[in-house]
Amino acid sequence: MTMRSWISLYALLIRTSIRSRMQYKFNFLLGTLLAALIQISEFLMVAIVLYKFGAIQGWSMHEIGYLFAVMTLSKTIYRMFADEVHHLEKYLVNGELDQLLTRPMPVLLALLPQKFRLMPGEILQGGFLLWWSLDGMMADGQISWVAVPYTLLIIGTGAVILFSIGLATATCGFWMTRITVLQNLTEDAARSAAQYPLTLYPKWMISLLLFAIPVGLVNYVPALYILRGELGGWILPLLAVAALFCLLLSVRFWQYGITKYQSTGS
After folding, report:
1. What is residue 59's three-state secondary structure?
2. Fewer beta carbons below 10 Å: N end or C end of the chain?
3. Is residue 133 in a domain?
4. Alpha helix ranges (H) inside 140-234
5. What keywords would UniProt list here (predicted)?
6. Which has the closest alpha carbon to 240: 255, 221, 213?
7. How far is CA 120 from the centre of its chain?
8. How many structural domains compose the chain?
9. How many CB atoms lie within 10 A of CB 249?
């Protein structure tokens, strides 16, 4: 099959998954509302502290809101299109991966659209927070309109980086089987830490979040240039290259890992 055929098939599987999800509209609407409330409440707790003290390590409320928004939207794109990567453990434990192995298509392509997630709550919350942050900084003269297309670019590269981290972590399941604890570290904890300026952390942790688990490349590093004019314009194309490198590395790791898969026999 050609690449165009794979893309068409992937789109068909996504549409099928969406129709399945929309059979329970009330559950979908309630989940959307709760997701939005949970996301916004997390930032509100930080905003209360910032309102009291003004800034954290020199980062204003609008700047930290920007970090939150970029991370939220990047994560949302990743989890919308590849949520089942995060839930690979159930496929390994229950033997459901065997069913995907029998399909005449790459296993990863068969896995991704299994349960396509509609996440309007996260999109609305992240979008509102991003608009509020950019509008506030533009009003203060800190940034110009050029920050908007730059931000859209880094949300895309950020989604690729988060997907790469998630795929590499999931691949470890071919050896470990149970990977929930590892995912809590590499995805949830690391992503939560990167919602704040990395200067808050000791040097060893900054290195960890920039190189070993590169969530700092999603929002903090590009924000230094977009919001503060630091590092230089070369950082944005370099981030795009880094995202592509992370993707290729994680896919190669997946291809190697799947050769080590041992069925449960169930």
Report:
1. strand
2. C
3. yes
4. 147-171, 173-176, 180-183, 190-193, 203-207, 220-226
5. Membrane, Transmembrane, Transmembrane helix
6. 221
7. 15
8. 1
9. 13
Report residue 190 as tokens.
């690391």
User: In angstroms, rounded to a whole number, what is the distance separating the alpha carbons of residues 256 and 230?
Assistant: 39
Query: If residue 251 lies in a helix (H) or strand (E), which one and from where to where?
Result: helix 235-258
What is the Cα–Cα distance from 128 to 122, expressed in whole angstroms?
Answer: 10
**What are the tens digits of pLDDT across the range 43-64?**
776 677 666 666 777 888 899 9
Question: At CA 138, angle to CA 161 and CA 146, rounded to 5?
Answer: 50
Instruction: Tell me the residue range of the domain where 212 lies.
Output: 3-258
- How do residues 156-172 score in pLDDT, each as one tens digit? 999 999 999 999 999 99
CB 109 within 8 A of CB 10: yes
Amino acid letter, 2: T
Q: What are the structure tokens assigned to 22, written together?
A: 């929309």
| pLDDT tens figures, 178-194 | 898 999 999 888 888 88
